[in-house]
Amino acid sequence: MKTTTIKKYWALLTISWENGLVYRMSVFMWRLRRFLAAVMALTIWSTIYTSAAPEATTFGYAQSDMISYIFLISILQSLVLATALNGLAQDVYSGAISNQLLKPLSLTVYLIMQDLADKLKNASALLFEIIALFLIFKPVVHLPDLPTLGIFIVWTLAAIVLNFCISLLFGSLGFWSPETWAPRFLFYTLLQFTAGQLFPLDVLPTIFQKVMYATPFPYLSFVQTQLFLQKLTLSEIQLHSMVLLGWVAVLAFLAQGIWKRGLRDYDAAGR
């Protein structure tokens, strides 16, 4: 890669970082919302176990295991699901992306840099949230061995790409309709259940688990958390690796195809 290209990408990343911090109160409220959601989930499960015996289990999880699970998945979702593309559909429909289309830079690269800057911003705030949650709830979290940790990092990066593709698909709705908020709201409401944010998916009946695993949603955070907690067998790790990469490939192909189709039909309304 040429030095000038690297400098161009670095400048774009820096500008996106600075733009993301223009409205600091919005950033603070978003992080506070994520933090309070984690506190609420951890408090609820701590309360459930309060009246139980120390060695008692609920849905097959001991108290320390459940608290560790909710702690990890809250942190993981705060990073994976944070995205700068929430307003992409509105930018498309209003014609705001015309400004980027006229510049000598790929719109996809621009969106990637924008999303990466947002991830870095959220990761910076997440460090303080992790410390606060750890001090309050004192979860017992053991680091897995190095090979498992390596797979966990790869799976997490794949989940970030997967969420980017999903966000791009929702952004593509703006090419054809102004009604983009409701589908996205419904998606994130559904995601709270299907990605394991409120409870581990393996507490559900087998038939419901199979339905969940027929979607990409568990691969946005649930399987990564199960891997970190070392609850997956070698065969399950191999299966989930193939399925996760398969979903990334399928959704990347769909997002690219629909986005290109939208650009062909794009007439920059309002510009």
Defining key terms:
about 270 residues, globular
Question: Your description of this structure?
Answer:
With 271 residues, the chain is mainly alpha-helical. The chain has one domain. Helix content is 71%, strand content 1%. It has 11 helices and 2 strands. It has helices at 3-20, 24-50, 63-80, 88-94, 98-101, 107-137, 146-172, 181-194, 206-213, 222-228, 234-265; strands at residues 57-58, 61-62. The protein has a two-stranded antiparallel sheet with strand order 1-2. Strand 1 (57-58) and strand 2 form a beta hairpin.
SSE blueprint and pairings:
Blueprint: H1 3-20, H2 24-50, E1 57-58, E2 61-62, H3 63-80, H4 88-94, H5 98-101, H6 107-137, H7 146-172, H8 181-194, H9 206-213, H10 222-228, H11 234-265
Antiparallel strand pairs: 1-2
The counted number of beta strands is 2
N-to-C CA distance: 35 Å
Helix content: over 70%
Number of helices: 11
Question: What is the residue-mean pLDDT, rounded to a whole number?
Answer: 82
Number of self-contained structural domains = 1
Order of helices and strands: HHEEHHHHHHHHH
Backbone structural class: mainly alpha
Main sheet? 2 strands, antiparallel
Q: Which regions contain 5 or more consecutive residues with pLDDT less than 50?
A: none
Shape type = globular
Q: Spatial order of the strands in the main sheet?
A: 1-2
- Oligomer description: single chain
Radius of gyration: 20 Å
Percent of residues in beta strands: under 5%
